[in-house]
Amino acid sequence: MRSLSGFLAGLVFGLGLLISGMTNPAKVLNFLDLAGAWDPSLAFVMLGATAVTFVGYRLAWRQPKPMLEPKFDLPASNEIDRSLVAGATIFGIGWGIGGYCPGPALTALPLLAPGTLAFVPAMLFGLWLGSRARALDILSPKGTTS
Amino acid sequence: MGPVTQTDFTPWMSLGGGVLIGISAVMVMALFGRIAGISGIARGVLGMVVPMEGTSDDAGWRIAFVLGLFVAPVAMALIGSPVEQTVSDNLVGMALAGLLVGVGTAIGSGCTSGHGVCGLARLSRRSAVAVMTFMIAAAATVHVLRHMLGVV
After folding, report:
1. Tens digit of pLDDT for each residue in A71-98?
2. Rounded Cα distance, A128 and B32, in Å
3. What are the boundaries of each domain within chain B?
4. Are residues B46 and A21, on separate chains, in Cβ contact within 8 Å?
5. B99-to-A60, A92, A110, B69, B127 alpha-carbon distances in Å
6. Which helix (H) or strand (E) covers residue A1, if one does?
7. Residue B34 C-beta-side C-alpha neighbours within 13 Å
8. Could you state, in order of their start, the residue ranges of all structural domains in chain A?
């Protein structure tokens, strides 16, 4: 049940990314290129996704607990710290170079474009490296790791 | 990163795809009580293979989720609408991009889905700051590469 639910959620997410155009790096880069061949489509992806999630979350939270877990597990931190801003900046630079964020890159993996095959292993290594860096508190000398 | 490819403005397809992404995010919350952040889910799966700090030992549904992502393009092909893609073939550039995306989302605790969709829907101040930061960094990077360095 858990695996089937997870699989279906992933399938719907992947179909959403593919239909919306997020899995096409050219479209993402054109969205980010305000001074050039601007394609505003991705603003509509964010609008659709965030609006549905905003309403759906509030319906889900009316239940005392999630269907398959004993409790809701939400990020508690509200702190704007150095690792948040540094991480988001590094991510943004990578997104601007390749036109891929993690979801579309993974979803597009079976399409086997050479650029995707270069991107995904490097991203997984980066996730490991970044997790190490966080654990070592490199970015949080005052111990403010969230 | 390759010549600029013109892309069509697709408001309805993009809105529809966004709705599906939202439905999936709500499914993950209603079923598992969690944020549908892809970088976090990928970290959880990776934690099964290599020892990593801060990953939950409950990776089962996350592996199934990633399998669902992989099946999506196959399903699209089966219903006869193959996926359009233009990916740069500058492999060094793409590997560098992947590395930065991985490191950045691990340090910044999220990506376009976790901070973007889920965080904004939760009205999280942290996520709002993260989204503004990565949008500005990404747009600035594209601007520098395309219009200042001419690497297009």
Report:
1. 999 988 888 999 999 999 999 999 999 9
2. 24
3. 11-148
4. no
5. 35, 12, 20, 21, 22
6. none
7. 19
8. 2-135
Which positions ≥6 away from A144 have C-beta within 8 Å?
A79, A81, A82, A83
User: pLDDT-derived band of residue B57, with 50, 70 and 90 as boundaries?
Assistant: low
Q: Is B1 helix (H, G, I), strand (E, B) or coil?
A: coil
Helix, strand, coil percentages in chain A from 3-state DSSP, rounded to 5: 65, 0, 35
Task: Specify the residue for token string 């959403």.
Answer: A16
Interface membership of B98 toward A (CB under 8 Å):
yes
The identity of residue A4, as a single letter, is L
Cβ atoms of residues B116 and A46 within 8 Å: yes
- Residues in B closer than 8 angstroms to A9, CB to CB, are 24, 27-28, 31, 36, 65, 68
Question: Which chain A residue has its CA at the smallest distance from B64's CA?
Answer: A7
